[in-house]
Amino acid sequence: MLARLRPYLPTAVLVLLIVYFALNAFSGDRGLLRSNQRDETLIAKTRELAQVERQRQDLETRARLLRDTSLSADLLEERARSLLGFADPRDYVIHMKP
Question: pLDDT at position 53, please?
Fold first, then answer.
């Protein structure tokens, strides 16, 4: 019986390989069925990148204003009050939970 199936063995192995790769092409990590998930992940990461870039730009601006060459008195006063916990009597203070 093994002698009769021996000529079909390479064909069976080839068919199994084709089925394996076809299934992975559709449902694997980089398959066609996962493209929507990849697109959603890409959109979310793009939004997160834009937010982080805005935060970085804001921090760079604040750091530039606190340098010795271009010290902003308003920003320095704001940071000192924030760190020391003081307020001007004319300020409206709104306490928020952290």
Answer: 97
